[in-house]
Design brief:
Distance between the termini: 85 Å
Shape: rod-shaped
Radius of gyration: 29 Å
Number of strands: 0
Helix content: over 70%
Number of helices: 4
Length: 75
């Protein structure tokens, strides 16, 4: 058993092209590229905290604690 030479790899490549065809291989390569692109985008988005609000929006909406305090005061 030895390593495969360049000629072996060329024969394998020709067989793969004959079996699958160039159109199917190029569409598969495009799909793989877009999947990698989306994965990298998702990894970058994970660095940002998702649930944080800006200070302005915190003042606009009452928090749950404030609402529960209001309910206790009303009783």
């Amino acid at each position: 058993m030895g390593s495969l030479s360049i000629w072996h790899w060329l024969v394998v490549l020709v067989i793969v092209l004959l079996v699958f065809g160039t159109k199917r291989l190029t569409s598969g390569a495009k799909d793989l590229g877009s999947a990698v692109k989306e994965f990298k985008k998702g990894m970058r988005d994970d660095d940002k905290p998702a649930g944080q609000l800006s200070d302005g929006s915190r003042n606009d909406e009452p928090s749950r604690e404030t609402q529960s305090e209001r309910d206790r005061d009303a009783r």
